[in-house]
Write a structure and sequence with these properties.
With 299 residues, the protein is mainly α. It has a single domain (8-43, 80-289), classed as Glycerol uptake facilitator protein. Helices cover 70% and strands 0% of the residues. The protein has 13 helices and no strands. The protein has helices at residues 2-14, 17-39, 47-56, 60-77, 82-100, 107-115, 121-145, 148-151, 165-186, 195-217, 223-233, 241-261, 268-279. α3 (47-56) packs antiparallel against α4 and α9 (165-186) packs across α12. The longest helix has 25 residues, at 121-145. The termini are far apart. The model is unreliable at 50-67, 69-78 and 286-299 (pLDDT under 50).
């Protein structure tokens, strides 16, 4: 009977216009965030600057082969600047949050919000699906607008040779922990941090995570960010690292923030009772006031 009541309320909530708008915001927000962020990993190599000069000073057939060989070699040797990638993702977060409001963009963060009972479980599952679809859309657009020779792996996350898998998982867990912990901290109801400062803290957290982990795992920190390139490139080698690490980091951040440092429940039974109340209540607002960051701008 309890399960039927939950399903009934879930279907009622999912059919509401406010929930549909939340789904659209998560999809568009994630797509825009990853489109801008991942584009920084597909910078054109310097060979493009010399392609025209080569083609004008050589025979047509020769210039084509020379320029393309030079371009492919330069693309293979081109290493993206970690600072450039980190700044791109941080700036993308700011732009998306200002435009879309309180969006999550990250399945790991959504998991922590659901565990912290700030988000209905069924909403969390649908939001994660929207985030993954948004990641696919971003990568599909990038494949269409970026020249093939400079696409590379479209920001595909790969464990760097020499880094053991347990080290890669630990690195992903660490950088995701600091990001999710920051998100939970600035969205805490008792927090006096202004929305603009909260957004700045999250942007710095994203940049810090990228600068820390790029040299070891490429920096996932967001399962959706790892899923999109892996899907379009059909490369899931060690992909589990970019789910296990971030999700473990999110759970650890939730335990540290909501259970240890700012305890919100007196016991496990209290948490379970609050969970039952949550799943048996249809949200009245399209945006939870404790979503990532109170990122909505004051009007």
């Amino acid at each position: 009977m309890w399960i039927l009541s939950c399903l009934s309320l879930a279907l009622k909530d999912m059919s509401s216009l406010s929930f549909l708008l939340d789904i659209v915001r998560e999809f568009l927000g994630t797509a825009l965030f990853l489109l801008m962020g991942l584009s920084s990993t597909t910078v054109l190599p310097a060979a493009f600057n010399t392609q025209d000069s080569i083609s004008h000073n050589a025979e047509p057939s020769t210039s084509y082969s020379i320029s393309n060989l030079s371009l492919l070699q330069a693309t293979q040797d081109c290493h993206k600047d970690p600072l450039q990638v980190a700044l791109a993702f941080a700036a993308a977060l700011v732009v998306v949050c200002v435009c879309m409001g309180a969006v999550q963009l990250n399945p790991a963060l959504t998991l922590a919000l659901a565990l912290g009972l700030r988000l209905n479980p069924w909403r969390a599952m649908v939001f994660v699906a929207a985030q993954l679809l948004g990641a696919l859309a971003a990568c599909a657009i990038l494949m269409g607008i970026v020249p093939t020779a400079s696409q590379g792996q479209l920001g595909l996350n790969e464990v760097v040779p020499g880094v053991l898998l347990y080290q890669a998982v630990s690195m992903e867990m660490a950088v995701t922990f600091q990001l999710v912990f920051c998100g939970l901290a600035v969205s805490r109801p008792s927090s006096t941090t202004s929305p603009s400062l909260s957004l700045g803290a999250l942007a710095i957290s994203v940049m810090l995570g990228n600068l820390t982990a790029i040299g070891y795992t490429g920096c996932g920190m967001n399962p959706a960010r790892s899923f999109g390139p892996a899907m379009v490139k059909h490369n899931f080698h060690n992909h589990w690292v970019y789910w296990v690490g971030p999700c473990a980091g999110a759970v650890l951040a939730w335990l540290s923030h909501d259970v240890l440092l700012w305890s919100r429940w007196s016991s496990v039974g209290d948490w379970i009772n609050k969970l039952r109340e949550l799943v048996l209540t249809v949200p009245q607002k399209h945006t939870d006031p404790e979503h990532i960051a109170g990122l909505e701008q004051e009007t």
